[in-house]
Amino acid sequence: MFKKIALTLCGAGLSAVLLTGCTTTPEQCDPSQDQGFFGKIGCTVSGSYDERITQREQRVEALKAENQRLNQLARDLFAQDALVKAQISEQNRMLDHAKSELYAVQASLAQKKALSSDLQDQITQAQQQIDALKKANTSSQTKAALAQKQKQIDELNATLEQLQSQLI
Fold it and tell me: Phi-psi bin for 141: left (phi > 0), alpha (psi -120 to 50), beta?
């Protein structure tokens, strides 16, 4: 009789362990939480510990991939920033050249006593445009803004050529 009771209890205990193992999920098998004896056996038997490890490894791989993507994006932005700064520097150089040419035209016209008030107004206006463009170049720029500034520089160069042609 004792043997029968012991077998029944053992069978019931084994069934409880197996059922516990079947009902555990990876979220319930957190090693930082105390699962108790049967809980730990259930997590081991059900494979929830292994599944939890697999999920964590996949998460780490996904985060590594995201980190690589963000690093590449940062490198691209730094390269783009360097390109924009180079374009701004080139535009500033062109503006400085245009301004020095304007001063030369103004001095030449004054020396020839051919500097009328209309020509002086055109020169002053061109100088103001150059100063405004140079001031605008110190702020952050987008490609569209840089293209607009380049168009304005080209227009100023055309004005400068027109003024130089009046010297002759």
Answer: beta
